[in-house]
Amino acid sequence: MSKTNAVRILESRGIAYTLHEYEVDESDLSGETVARKVGAESDEVFKTLVTIGDKTGVTVFVIPVTAELNLKKAAAASGNKRIEMAKLKDVLELTGYMRGGCSPVGMKKHYPVYLDELSGLFSFIYISAGVRGMQMRLKPEDLISVTDAITADLL
C-alpha cells in the first residue's frame, strides 16, 4: 500500500487509523459495494461530497454512503442560501482527488467540512484514504479534529 496525502496527514498528527484495501470495479463505485468489500456495515462507511455554496464557495460534506445529502439542510448548516453539487469534471481540480477516491482529509485547499451527526453513533467510521480501492477506518472525533469538521444533521 502506498501512502496517500490523507494517510500522511493522519500520521503527522498522531491519529490512529487502519487501512483497508479492496478491488475496484469501475462499473460499480457504490458505497454499499465498498462497505461489503472492506467488511464493514454500510452505515459505518461515509462518502465525501463536494459542493459549491452561494456564499462559502467550495464546501465538503461527509455523510453515510446509504444516504443522500439534503441540500436545504446542507445550505443551512454551512451558512448558504443555496448549495449545489460540484460538477464531477471539477472535483479533481478542486480537491486533488478523483470520484470514488475523494477524502475529506488532505484536499488541495482547506475547505469547510461538515460531518453528518450520525457519525457519532459509531466508535469508528470508514472514509476514503484518497484513492480508489482504499478506505481509512478512524474515530469520528479524530476526523473532526483533523479536518476541523462541524457535525450537523445533513440528511
Outline the structure in words.
- The structure is a single chain.
- The protein is α/β, with parallel strands linked by helices and 155 residues long.
- It has one domain (5-152): YbaK/aminoacyl-tRNA synthetase-associated domain (YbaK protein).
- 26% of the residues lie in helices and 25% in strands.
- The chain contains five helices and eight strands, in the order αβαββαβαβββαβ.
- It has helices at 5-12, 31-38, 71-78, 88-95, 140-147; strands at residues 18-21, 46-53, 57-64, 83-85, 113-116, 125-128, 134-138, 150-152.
- A five-stranded mixed sheet has the order 4-2-3-5-8.
- The mean pLDDT is 95.
List the helices and strands and how they pair.
Layout: H1 5-12, E1 18-21, H2 31-38, E2 46-53, E3 57-64, H3 71-78, E4 83-85, H4 88-95, E5 113-116, E6 125-128, E7 134-138, H5 140-147, E8 150-152
Parallel strand pairs: 3-5, 5-8
Antiparallel strand pairs: 1-7, 2-3, 2-4, 6-7
